[in-house]
Each structure stands twice: as C-alpha cells, then as structure tokens.
Design a protein that fits this description.
- Helix 2 packs parallel to helix 9 (236-245), helix 10 (249-267) runs parallel beside helix 13 and helix 12 (308-317) packs across helix 13.
- The protein has two domains: 4-247, 3-Layer(aba) Sandwich (Aspartate Aminotransferase, domain 2); 248-375, Aspartate Aminotransferase, domain 1 (Alpha-Beta Complex), CATH 3.90.1150.
- The chain has 376 residues and is α/β, with parallel strands linked by helices.
- Strands 1-7-6-5-4-2-3 form a seven-stranded mixed sheet, sandwiched between helices.
- 36% of the residues lie in helices and 15% in strands.
- The chain starts with a helix and ends with a helix.
- One of its GO terms (cellular component) is cytoplasm.
- Its EC number is 4.4.1.1.
- Pfam families: Cys_Met_Meta_PP.
C-alpha cells in the first residue's frame, strides 16, 4: 500500500492518456447529450451527476478508506453533508449527538425533534456517550476531536457498544478536524466518515465543501437520492479546486500538526493562559486516546485568556495570524469563539488554527501578542 503523501497526490486521478492533461478540468454542464434510456446513462442532468464530482468522490473515498472499496458523496457544505446523514432518521427513532460539538448541531437537533426524532446529548469522551446508548438508538453521531474543545472519544469502543446494544444503529464520525490522513473512522468500525471539506481538506479558504463516505452501497444510494431531491449539489469549479488541492494535503496536515504543537508548547509557558488543549500534548486529557487512533493530532489549539478584553487585545496584536473563523487553512487564524454565542465556552476562549508558516515565526507572533495583551 502506498503512503499518505503518494495517495493524496494521485487520489482520483485518471490513468495517464497521451496528450491529455493529468488532471481534467472542471466540467461545466447543466445537461448532457442523452440518447436512449436515462437509467443507463453515467450522466444525464447536472443535478444528478458531474464528472468533476466523480473524480473528487473517488479521491475522498481513497483517502478515507485506503485498501477497501468505499463510496463518497460530496455536498456544497459540511452542514449539507450533516443534513443528508440526519435525513436517514425517521420519526420515533433516537439519535445521540455530542453536546460539545460544532455550534450548528443544536439547530440540527431542533430540526430532528420537529420531525419526531428523539435526541439525546452527551459530552465527547468519558462514559457519558456510552451511557446514552440503548436499543432505541438509530444514529450515534461522534465528533472527535470535538470543535472547539478538542476532547476525543474512543471510536472503536463506542462502535462496539452501539453494535451490542442497538444492532441496527449507524455510527457516523465527524472527521473534519482530524482529516482522513489524521484519522480513519471507517477502519475503526464506523459506518460513515463525514467532514466539512471547507477546512483542512481543501485548505485554501476558497471553497465550501462537505462529504460523507461509507462502505455500504445502500447508504451511498440513499445519500445520493437526498442530494438529488434537495438540490444540495456542489459546483464543478469548487469540486475541481478541492481535488487539485488534495495533492498537498499530506504536506499541509503534517506541517500544521507540527506548528500547532509548537504553538501549544509556547502557550503553556504563560501564566495567563488557562485550559490549554491540544491532543498532541502528552499531558492533555485526550492524548492517550488520541494517540491510539490518530496519525496526526490536528491543527487546532484551544485555550482561555482571563476575559473577553484580554482575548481581544491578544487577537488584535497578532501580526501573522488572521482574526477569522474556520480552521485548517494554509494561513493561521484565531478567534474568540464566544462572539458567535453558540459554544458553551468562556468569554476569553480562543480557538487557534495553525497554518503552514514557519513554526518559529508563529511562536514569536504568539509570544509578542501575549505580551502586548498582558501589558495593556
């Protein structure tokens, strides 16, 4: 089996053909020439399929499930992928969601409950997620590491428990922060690996993208039906940009992980920094579990400064790091997460996403910004 870097470079790329480009350009088509029976046509209409999607889907499936056949479905955003998976639930069924996950999950929970789905919530890690499982559960949704708190749950342990208590339950893992190079939920027994490809998968801050990957053809068909029926389709240009960017995924993920650990090490030396979290830190509460199931520990570091004003002074003093939401890009970003109002975090909580700048430069920028915030 090839290595991660080689796989990322070649994923989804067609066989070499004389005088043809190695990476086909985006196919901009609302319809296709369609003689005969549409049921046997590989492409019939722009809402049902596009060759540029197909290439990206092959690439994502190869990355999330190397060595074993899998099916990827791409969507125009991470939340579209989440919504597609949640559409599998029926009234009267139950789902378990993290209470400390992405801030849009409470809104998704409300939609599920409006449809008659029972929703239970539990924090990531520990035994609370295990305790929430019983025979009524149809979907266990995991987010590991969690965003923005960076807690980690044992995917294999939760899958085994779900299988024993609720044999028909689906286990889906939000793999956004880890990326398919940092963690492979399908290899750990999950039914679905989902992500916002907007983040590290694309990595350049210029594409909104989501995906869901499974090894089950029936699940794949149901997700594709939902995409077609709702019109939640990815533009071909966005698909092409994301696929082109995959060639540097391993380089970016590796560099970002190194940079995040360097930044975390610097933050740990300052007394005004509290609640420092990064799964790669040996002393982090999640490190032991993360080390068992992750190859890279991700680009995100979270920590808390004394109050809102202190955090805002820190962010304003950063010179290389942009004050922006999202994470996983080539340029480092940081933000005070409480400004959105959706995350149960302190006012001074900062989510820092390490980019691919030189580690020494990032560390120096963080050091001077902490000094500026403290001395104001």
């Amino acid at each position: 089996m090839t290595g991660d870097g080689t796989r990322a470079v070649h994923a989804g790329i067609p066989e070499a053909e004389a005088y043809r480009p190695p990476v086909p350009g985006p196919v901009l088509a609302a319809h296709y020439h369609l003689p005969g029976d549409p049921a046997v046509a590989p492409y019939s209409y722009g809402r049902t399929g596009n060759p540029t999607w197909t290439a990206l889907e092959r690439a994502v499936a190869e990355l999330e499930s190397p060595g074993e056949a899998a099916h990827a479905v791409v969507f125009p955003s991470g939340m579209a992928a989440v919504s597609a998976v949640f559409s599998l639930l029926r009234p009267g069924e139950a789902a378990v969601l993290p209470c400390d996950g992405y801030q849009m999950l409470p809104r998704a929970r409300a939609r599920l409950e409006e449809r008659g789905v029972t929703v239970r919530v539990a924090p990531t890690g520990g035994d609370a997620q295990l305790d929430a499982l019983d025979a009524d559960v149809r979907l266990l949704w995991l987010e590991t590491p969690s965003n923005p708190g960076l807690d980690v749950c044992d995917i294999r342990r939760l899958v085994d428990r779900a299988r024993s208590l609720a044999p028909g339950a689906l286990v889906a893992v939000d793999n956004t922060l880890a990326t398919p190079l940092g963690q492979r939920p399908l290899e750990l027994g999950a039914d679905l690996a989902c992500a916002s490809g907007t983040k590290a998968l694309n990595g350049h801050g210029d594409v909104l993208l989501g995906y869901a990957v499974s090894r089950d053809a029936e699940l794949d068909a149901r997700l594709r039906e939902w995409r077609t029926e709702t019109g939640a389709i990815l533009g071909p240009m966005e698909a092409w940009l994301a696929h082109r960017g995959l060639a540097t995924l391993q380089l970016r993920v590796e560099r970002q992980a190194v940079n995040a650990l360097a930044v975390a090490g610097e933050l740990g030396r300052h007394p005004e920094v509290a609640g420092l979290r990064h799964p790669g830190l040996p002393g982090d509460p999640a490190h032991e579990t993360a080390a068992r199931q992750m190859r890279y520990f991700g680009c995100v570091v979270s920590f808390t400064l004394p109050d809102r004003e202190h955090a805002e002074r820190f962010l304003a003093a950063l010179r290389l790091v942009h004050d922006a939401t999202s994470f996983g890009g080539v340029r480092s970003t940081a933000e005070r997460r409480r400004r959105w109002g959706g995350d149960p975090v302190p006012e001074g909580f900062v989510r820092f996403s390490a980019g691919v700048e030189d580690a020494a430069d990032l560390v120096a920028d963080v050091r001077q910004a902490l000094a500026a915030a403290r001395g104001a």
